[in-house]
Amino acid sequence: MNPGELNCRITLQQETKVSDGQGGYATAYKPRAVVWAKVITVTAKTTDQYEQMVPELWHRIIIRYRRDVAVTDRIQYGRRVFEQIGPPIDEGEKHAFLRLECREVVADAADD
Predict the structure, then answer these.
(1) Tens of pLDDT along 26-69?
(2) Cα–Cα distance between 71 and 101 in angstroms, integer?
(3) Which candidate, 68, 73, 92, 95, has a CA 20 to 30 Å from the CA of 110?
């Protein structure tokens, strides 16, 4: 892969647990790193959830290899947020690039 194709600036966000004040916890995300990436839209579909049609986009995000990327990490690209749907994949097992398979749930256009 040509490193010049990594033309999108993304933020890797680490999942953390925060006390909710009632003995439980809430999930929060804090920035782990800002890296260059290639964001490729793989597929788009609409699913029926709770009697509501929800559009969903699936993406493949390629970044330079890092040892600290976990499957629980989230990716932020501008105002968009991506959740990983599987563990990071070491492309070619060469420790050069990581492939992140992600899902983005698109907010309803009427919410803007």
Answers:
(1) 999 999 999 999 999 999 888 777 777 778 899 999 999 999 99
(2) 10
(3) 73
